[in-house]
Amino acid sequence: MTTDLRRRDGGPSRHVRGRSPILDVVVDLHEDVAAARFPLDLPGAPELTELRDRIETQIGAHLLPRLKREAGPAVVVLGGSTGAGKSTLVNSVVGREVTQAGVIRPTTTEPLLVVREEDTWLVAEHPIARLADVVADDRVPAGLALLDAPDLDSVLEGNRALANLLLETADLWLFVTTAARYGDAVPWRVLRQAQERGITVAVVLNRVPRRVLAEVRGDLMRRMTDLGMGEAPLFVVPDVGPHEGLLPEEVVEPVRTWLTLLGGRNTARGVVRRTTQGVWGTLREELLRLSDGITAQAMAAGALRSCAEQAVAGAGDALVARLRAGAAAQGAPTTRWLAAASTGGVLAPLTGDVSRVRRGWRGGGLRARTEAAEALGAEVRRSLVTLTAAAATSAAAELDRAWSERGGAALLEHDPAWAAGRDTRAEEAVAAWAARSDALAAELIGADPRVLTAAGLSGLLQAAAAGLDGAARATRAVAPGQDAVARVTADLHETARAVVGEEAGPALDRLAALGLRSDAGAGLRLRASELKGHR
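The chain above was modelled as a monomer; its predicted structure follows.
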């Protein structure tokens, strides 16, 4: 869950005259961060996506509100492990049950922000109000707002994500744990991140049996010291046994007193400034990490584009090589040619002295020769469709392999309709090629079809282009001095390459839709440089 403070029109931000220049920078930065994407399966991409989400929330829910209105209350987030007693602690500090507490886990599913009545208008337009329900209570220390967050280690993934994002809104984090849970890895990992980002942190060790209080407290203090938190406040709440409702006053009083001391407008603003300064301290480095990740994604996208083009080009070259070797003429086309052109065959006159046919020798007759040549062309076309569709399938498989090895597996959405349409695309392309052959043959025959009609000559041209040497010789005999065979052959090879090349289209379209621009990383790096020196 992230806040949405970006420009609605997608255009340049409208900087307001007279307002802080750094606010303009951060507004633009928020949009740039929100636009960052890491869709390719590269090392570190999930972590970068998580970092992007966190920075987006941090800017939108913390920095921008503070830059626009510093007078808002300091947000104290109560976070920690499942069953640590966060909700009970919030209720006890306030002095009434404002949030649900219980034994069913997870209890806190909807975050709750408790704020003084006089401060409700200050948080009404704050992004945190979109993430949490707001309750007014004047027993909250002045200048503070208490946020009861879901568990950091909740069994519900959505709750865990929300809890982590809510921490980005914090001016102060009250980490609540227990004697049984204080060693859990997840909360301490988040605690370390909060410490690194300069968030003011205090720890509440809740439900500690008195017999182990000294031992657990000492171990926890050592852990805090090792983490660089030796000066962070530590509150120990003894185990009061089974109970319902609020904690006894004497148990919760140290926490309430400390929060009250932090309260008051001036003191709370000091907490806000310290945390905000801590954010500036790490934000630039994190933005540079995002920038490097964006650049890596754009470079990987370029590599995917190149290898997709190479995959289909290689398959196209292989198909053309097979066509040059006569693969399309093998089998049925060769058999039909031999039957028609052998001694006594209807096309045999075209393999000898064609001038006799021109002088009126009828042999098999014009019609018979034309039908035989047309049938030969049909066999060739069927063979070409089969070869071309098979080459397209090979190109798709090679593209899949190449992209899977280079982080593009997520883009390989296999569309059954596209795969099923390969034969149709090949048929249409071969038919279009044959139509151009028909047009050329008509131009060559003209108005005197004594040897062959235009349709018959086109059949011979197609067979010659497929690699039947006898058909090529017959074509040159019928239309001497022409380069018709070379023209139709070149057209066939170009058509074959185009059909195979289409296999890259869907994948390249999906890649283009990601919008991975090579300049996006540089743009974010520029934004980071604009923050340099700001505190």
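The beta strands are 74-80, 112-115, 133-136, 144-148, 172-178, 200-208, 234-238.
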